[in-house]
Specification:
With 248 residues, the chain is of the alpha/beta class. Helices cover 30% and strands 21% of the residues. The chain has 2 domains: 154 residues, TPP-binding domain (Rossmann fold, 3-Layer(aba) Sandwich), CATH 3.40.50.1220; 82 residues, SIR2/SIRT2 'Small Domain' (2-Layer Sandwich). It has 9 helices and 12 strands. The longest helix is centred in the first third of the chain and has 15 residues. Bound molecules: 2'-O-acetyl adenosine-5-diphosphoribose. 2'-O-acetyl adenosine-5-diphosphoribose binds next to strand 11.
Length: 248
């Protein structure tokens, strides 16, 4: 069991200052202070049902095959909710860490907020709400505007697009987990931020990082599944804790 803190310690600030390679895993809690609901924990405010159907059914590969228009309608609803959302102090702090360091962020979030804050190496393990993907030619197309002019939207090749998001019952996009694992085992400092760490394979990353010798720090207002397997847990909000790490 690692240490559990409620503020950033000087020892941690020193570790942070000396780290050359940092890898980060983020989850829904990273965007909570931007107003994006989480799925679980902290009074999880996520949407679990829409039009009488559970989210596990709406965001499923089966329903996409059966009724793509309905799946798009559901995604348009979510895109509408997320349209005005902006990165918070935590996202901006992570983007700032890149100065003079090698930083890779593997995120389970599909909101695009790390890139919006200026982070450059972001691995979107669960896809992106603001993109479509073509099953025919493989093109990924940015779809930044909601409502969409046509539903379902079409690819330049003429085929209908699907949301470029990992649905229940689907594998992660090829290569993305390997890239995240590569960063996790190569870093000296690993952060696991705002995730309940119950969804795999993302939840393996902090464990793999630690086995490979990284110092692992969790940032979350609550203890989670991973708390017993990290070096330090800082109980607090990402937007309050992360900007503090770089202060000496
Ligand atoms: P969860 O909703 O499971 O967990 C959110 C975590 O964020 C909880 O542990 C909260 O305590 C924490 N949290 C809340 N506010 C916070 C704050 N201000 N700062 C830091 N942490 C905070 O979200 P994920 O772990 O991301 O997958 O869920 C993983 C996956 O489950 C999602 O990507 C999604 C879902 O099924 C897919 O859709 C494929």
């Amino acid at each position: 069991m690692g240490e559990v803190l409620s503020v950033v310690s000087d020892a941690l600030r020193r570790r942070f200052r000396d780290a050359e390679r940092i890898a980060v895993l983020t989850g829904a809690g990273m965007s909570a202070e931007s107003g994006v609901p989480t799925f679980r924990g902290g009074g999880g405010t996520g949407i679990w049902e829409w039009k009488g159907r559970p989210v596990t059914e709406l965001s499923s590969a089966e329903l996409l095959a059966e009724d793509p228009a309905l799946v798009w309608e559901w995604f348009e609803y979510r895109r509408g909710l997320m349209k005005a959302v902006k990165p918070n102090a935590g996202h901006f702090a992570l983007a700032g860490w890149e100065k003079g360091r090698d930083v890779t962020i593997a995120t389970q979030n599909i909101d695009g907020l790390h890139a919006a804050a200026g982070s450059r190496r972001v691995l979107e393990m669960h896809g992106n709400l603001w993109r479509g993907a073509c099953a025919r030619c493989g093109l990924r197309k940015d779809l930044p505007v909601t409502p969409l002019p046509e539903v379902p939207p079409h690819c330049d090749c003429g085929a209908p697009l699907r949301p470029d998001v990992v649905l229940f019952g689907e594998m992660l996009p090829p290569g993305v987990y390997d890239a995240a694992l590569g960063a996790a085992v190569a870093c000296d400092l690993f952060f696991v931020i705002g995730t309940s760490a119950v969804v795999y394979p993302a939840a393996y990353l902090p464990v793999e990082a630690r086995s490979a010798g990284a110092f692992v720090v969790e940032v979350n207002p609550e203890e989670t599944e991973i708390t017993g397997r990290v070096d330090v847990t800082i109980l607090g909000k990402a937007g309050e804790i992360l900007p503090n790490l770089a202060h000496s």
